[in-house]
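Running co-folding for 2'-monophosphoadenosine-5'-diphosphate.
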Amino acid sequence: MRKARLGESGPAVSAIGLGCMGMSALYGPRPEEAQSISVLHRALDLGIDLIDTSASYGDGHNEQLLGKAIHDRRDRVFLCTKFGIRRDNGPMRVDSSPDWARKSCDESLQRLRVDYIDLFYLHRRNPDVPIADTMGAMAELVAAGKVRHLGLSEVNAQTLRQAHAVHPLAALQTEYSLLSREVEAEILPTCRELGIALVAYSPISRALLTGQITTDTAFSDDDLRSGNPRFAGANRAANLALVDRLRALASEIGVTPAQLALAWLLAQGTIPIPGTTKVRHLEDNAATTVSLTTGQLQQIADLIPASAVQGERLAAAAARWVGK
Ligand code: ATR
């Protein structure tokens, strides 16, 4: 597995990580625990050490699962978690207050069964809380040894700059894929300028870019794709037409469409963290070894113009909390 640096002078991690959300929530029925643990163990054996979770995934379930899977192999994992999305058995709210940073960190440490977190992200920002206050509390967690590195998720460039001035950020995690290119305007250049790694979530666009979704694929109510505009009716058909072009090029190059989508993100200097609950998909993603030529990158740009993608990347309820 190739390595990447998390931030200009940050630690080396696997160039491709593993998103664990689907093992607990938002992608339909929860898989068997043993299956998810196999995926986690196989990831580590393949050299994928960047393991990504959040306190909010399954309301703590995902962190508990990881705690169980990794407690006997902690030193092989670069463990990333997040705070800021709260439910407390009610509707979702965003809490980026210093108090919640401290409390949520302690809860995560307990659920994960570890004494430090490698990378602690603010998952979403509540704009009523000054970012300097949130970062101040997060920096104290670093000083206390509970957390090694800090990150933000889905903030705007101004917030990123303000936060980085309080304490150096190792990573910004945000959605980025061939079908979601908004970050290219301002966020990605700002990350490059400041030496902050861009960790790309939904790098295969929630499976659209695998070429395995069709116009007939049905999603259950507890699968976020049932309410995602990119997957709705005519939008889905238009987006699948773009995926067909990617599939043809992938077959020409001799890789799978998922590998081509991930190789493209690697070529942008970002760190993709595809999510999966299946060993065979993990192995497919981990086998992304192709380095795309300038000519191939241009071909991809021509085949999938950002402007041709149909539908917003997030449902309205989720979109409320990004770009703050
Ligand atoms: P997210 O960041 O939200 O997890 P993603 O990584 O773009 O989004 O896509 C995750 C989806 O792609 C999941 O539905 C996952 O399904 P499985 O749990 O069944 O694997 C699917 N997926 C991931 N890698 C895949 C691959 N190589 N081939 C097919 N589907 C894949």
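Result summary
Residues 19, 21-22, 27, 201-207, 210, 212, 258, 274-278, 281, 284-285 surround 2'-monophosphoadenosine-5'-diphosphate (CB under 6 Å).
The mean pLDDT is 96.
Job closed.
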